């Protein structure tokens, strides 16, 4: 009996040590913080506790003479519209399909279907969150673009985080070089942040909408990464190659 107990305890410690070595514990911690941040923001927004803060930040990016005119030269506003399009459904769908095609051509069929499910699940989660909170769009800024959904969380910000971070994380798994892995993750994070800031600058979202989109999207992307690691251990998706510097 004592020998069996030692074996079980040894395996348990070995598994915990393995999780620590591959960063699973850190990922779980960051995921928990992101999910907690989203829930706290949702509670504050529902109670109206962020309205004054949102107004101040939004007006900082608008002309004092005309709230419909963002600060900065016209070319910067046009560039912001181009950046915000990177979080649109059309662009994200194209990138997801293109990445899936690349994985399919590489023979990674199970990973391809995992990508489609991960991004599709994020889109469903975003739609459910918008329907649940049903927050109106900013009323301080004239809405020149067509908007058909509620404000919280920002769909562009959330889906940019879901799509870019998930695709980068899964593509990074297929790269043996650590510097390429880091580059892909940093690039995805940069695009995600830029899309969110463009939504505030253009006045189509409150700042807390964008932060909520970032936290919810990051939490979903991290959950998908952890799921991918678990599926890899069970050989349900293709394994990643050994990492090199």
UniProtKB/TrEMBL annotation:
Top-level division of the source organism's lineage: Bacteria
Start and end residues of each Phosphatidic acid phosphatase type 2/haloperoxidase domain: 111-225
Signal peptide, first to last residue: none
Protein name: PA-phosphatase
Parts of the chain that traverse the membrane: 20-39, 83-105, 112-133, 153-172, 184-204, 210-231
Keyword terms of this UniProt record: Membrane, Transmembrane, Transmembrane helix
A Pfam family assignment: PAP2
């Amino acid at each position: 009996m004592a020998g069996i107990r030692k074996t079980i305890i040894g395996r348990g410690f070995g598994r915990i040590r393995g999780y620590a070595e591959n960063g699973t514990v850190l990922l779980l911690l960051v995921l928990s913080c992101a999910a907690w941040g989203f829930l706290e923001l949702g509670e504050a927004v529902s109670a109206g506790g962020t309205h004054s803060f949102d107004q101040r930040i939004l007006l900082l990016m608008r002309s004092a003479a005309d709230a419909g005119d963002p600060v900065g030269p016209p070319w910067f506003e046009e560039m912001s519209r181009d950046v915000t399009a990177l979080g649109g459904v059309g662009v994200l769908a194209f990138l997801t399909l293109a990445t899936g095609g690349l994985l399919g051509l590489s023979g990674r069929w199970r990973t391809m279907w995992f990508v489609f499910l991960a991004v599709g699940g994020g889109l469903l989660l975003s739609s459910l969150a918008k329907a649940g909170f049903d927050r109106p769009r900013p009323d301080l800024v004239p809405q020149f673009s067509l908007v058909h959904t509620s404000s919280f969380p920002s769909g562009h910000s959330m889906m940019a985080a879901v799509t870019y971070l998930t695709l980068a994380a899964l593509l990074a798994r297929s790269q043996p070089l650590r510097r390429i892995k880091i580059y892909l993750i940093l690039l995805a994070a940069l695009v995600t942040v830029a899309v969110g800031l463009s939504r505030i600058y253009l006045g189509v979202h409150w700042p807390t909408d964008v932060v909520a989109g970032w936290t919810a999207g990051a939490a979903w992307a991290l959950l998908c990464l952890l799921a991918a690691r678990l599926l890899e251990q069970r050989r349900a998706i293709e394994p990643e190659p050994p990492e090199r510097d």
